Give the backbone structure.
Amino acid sequence: MAKREVTDLLERDPEQEEQAGIRLGGLLAVLDETGYGGEPRLEVLGEIVSGLGDRFASDVRIQIIALNDKDQVIGLAGTSVSQGDPGYEAFAEATELQGRPSRIRIVVSCR
């Protein structure tokens, strides 16, 4: 099982985080090149912290999108927090991949 850190592939937009009233911290991305059956698997861990107080001000959705060198989506995972929840949430999200990622985009949206 060949695991390697690929945190340097993460792309995020601090403006999206600010608009949603959160900040992401402690991010770590790990690629397991052989996964569970020979297919690569990506795991992203991190923290979601309210930027506006001790509770989340809105519902926030976080998508983790793995892309290959042709900008095709090869894996997708996500997590969310709800308005009124305590303002801290740690997460660990994993997805099977359809190839090797060249970048990992993190998209934050609020509802």
